[in-house]
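BACKBONE GEOMETRY TOKENS:
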Amino acid sequence: MPKKAAIVVVNPVNGLGLFQYLEPFYESGIVYKTYAVGQVRDVKSNSGILLQTDDIIGNLRGEEAEYDALVFACGDAMPKFGLSMQLSENQDLITVVKNFGLKRKLMVGHCVAALVFDIAAVAEGKRVACHPLVKTAIKTAIATDEKAVIDGNLYTAQNENYISAIMPTLLESLKE
């Protein structure tokens, strides 16, 4: 039976990146649910397209056991993340990421996902691919210049252009 994935979506989200997860999951029969990192389900893509997620991040807290994987869909909201860490939805995001990591579930993302995994203390000592602008901010993970890296349960891509490099292995893992 395929595994289930929770996909967390920032606002605005990188639409190209988000759909590089959604399409293969759908086509492969992977069950997933999307969660907005916010107080409402509505998000926009970085090109202004309005999207509606299935739920909000606060409702994923405590429900992590229902899922086998967490996917972090990055977006243009991330440069402001550090300035708004105190917001409940960002605290929920870090808690959810930490809970998935503590259970050693699959954790997937691109761009600054590696930084979020690092902040949540679930990537210590693991190699990660990340956007070059966040490389120096990563403290406990091993930030690389690689386009895509799979290290244990972490699947990371430098940006949306390299998600396809991790997708075949990820899909295989989610089908097991």
Observations:
- The chain is about 30% helix and 25% strand.
- Residues 88-102 form the longest helix (15 residues).
